[in-house]
Amino acid sequence: MTVPQISTEQAAELPGIRGAADGATVWWWRGATTVLTADLALLDDSELRRLGRIRSPAGAAEFVGNRASVRRILAGLLGAPPERIHLGRRPCPGCGDPEHGPPTILNPQVMCWISISHTSGCGMLAVAGAPVGVDVERARDIRVDELAPTTLTPSEVKQLDGLTGDALRQAFLRCWTRKEAALKAVGVGITVPLDRVETHPATAGTITVAAGVPGTPQAWSVTDLPIPTPWTASVALPAGTAGPVRLRAHPGN
């Protein structure tokens, strides 16, 4: 598959998409603790319905704050008011279903790709000129021994062997965020067997992950993001994509 890229000329015609023409830019922010009226006003009808199904006040505050932060970042990039940013999904490249494909900007129409992730206390948005996936996870108690058989490859199990405590949990989260970032970049998310996706946890920095479905790139460059503790995060781009990965803090709420 030829990966669609934004040329310098096209980027010049789309004011504010700096960071999408080459590599990727990833914004992160700390989760909101209260629902702000100004943030709530930015949500669309489908997001308001999702909000109505969230029973935890803390979860509701983070959901509203995260969606508002995504729109404000995109508004700054695109030179449009945040309330004019309409989000939707591309069709799933695996099955064609428009309900669970990767996120996209429906309005205004732009030539870029986005990925969104959130975990307790942290949200992230990645913007790129090629398919991109980002994932962030908060450190927590994880029963790695129970999860390993269905989430890790035999090689990954060997590389984690002998680790204990925080070191084991950190290594597991490195595997997990790398897998999810790559599969979100593919566009299918965690719908494929995770124990077949090798992420080389003993290697820090940037690694190549083999993952894909027909019609998508089969190799992905996955980079660890230097996010503050207690979070672990990774971003994925098609292997060979030119340009750096930039991490920026957004004030959030």
The 3D shape can be described as: globular
- The CATH architecture classification is Alpha-Beta Complex
Number of strands: 10
The CATH topology comes to Ribosomal Protein L22, Chain A
Helix content: 25-40%
Cross-sheet strand order for the largest sheet = 4-5-1-10
Any idea how many domains? 1
Oligomer: single chain
**CATH class placement:** Alpha Beta
Number of helices: 7
Distance between the termini: 40 Å
Structural class: alpha+beta
Query: How much is the average pLDDT?
Result: 89
Relative strand content: 15-25%
What are the segments in which pLDDT stays under 50 over at least 5 consecutive residues?
A: 1-16
Mind explaining what this structure looks like?
The chain is of the alpha+beta class and 253 residues long. The protein has one domain (8-249): 4'-phosphopantetheinyl transferase domain (Ribosomal Protein L22, Chain A, Alpha-Beta Complex). It has helices at 8-13, 37-40, 45-52, 57-78, 144-151, 154-160, 165-186, and strands at residues 24-30, 86-89, 103-107, 113-119, 122-128, 133-138, 206-210, 219-225, 231-238, 245-249. The strands form three sheets. It has a four-stranded mixed sheet with strand order 4-5-1-10, covered by helices on one side. A hairpin with an 8-residue loop joins strand 7 (206-210) and strand 8 (219-225). The longest helix has 22 residues, at 57-78. It is globular and about 50 Å long. The N and C termini lie far apart (40 Å). The model is unreliable at 1-16 (pLDDT under 50).
